Amino acid sequence: MDLNDTVVTDLLAKRDETAFEQVFKTYYRDLHAYAYSILRDDAMAEEMVQNVFYKLWDRAGALNIGGSVAAYLYRAVHNESLNHLKHLKVRSEHKLYVSHRREESEGPGKHLAAKELEKRLQAAMNDLPEQCRTIFQLSRFEELRYREIADRLDISVKTVENQMGKALRILREKLVDLLPFLTLFIIN
Questions:
Q1: Which SS3 state, helix, strand or coil, does residue 61 take?
Q2: Which residue of 101, 130, 159, 172 shows the fewest CB atoms closer than 10 Å?
Q3: Distance (Å, whole) CA 88 – CA 69
């Protein structure tokens, strides 16, 4: 890492607005083009790059860039973009699952099985600690992103991540015999 990256990294860690603004002006356009090459959606590419810069500022003191600033930013945009695509895929699979479930539930025996599945899932969710349950419901039923959940509940994104992990772990344990049916619904 050259001296400029070291200096910039140190200034960012101290939340130096001038350094942040310079990094933003230097890399924004190229990062946007990179995100667009992954997402093929101009608005989403812009959002992904803005998310990366938001996190860069928000977590400035805790970041470990460990190399060039450019490499760090490109990797962050890459990961943010892939996470977005993964989220879209999960949403798509969930819609397909719901559609398929509706078709299957038209038969009387299958309707009963779907009701039992729903009842067991609801019981398992009711056993979750309150914060876990709330975060799980906001993520899976209202389809909010972790940042949106954190903002709504006035908690950190890390807390949301930890609570989602805890909720998913507990639900997997309680519903292990139903996992083939729930895979598209609750598992990342």
A1: helix
A2: 130
A3: 29
CA distance 120 to 174: 9
Q: How far apart are CA 84 and CA 148, in angstroms?
A: 14
Q: Residue 104 and residue 109: Cα distance in Å, rounded? A: 9
Furthest-apart CA pair in the chain: how many Å? 71
160's tokens: 């949301």
Name the one residue in this structure whose structure tokens are 């997402």.
Answer: 39
* Radius of gyration over every alpha carbon of the chain, rounded to an integer in angstroms: 21
What is the value of pTM for the model shown?
A: 0.51
The answer to whether the CB of 185 falls within 8 A of the CB of 140 is: yes
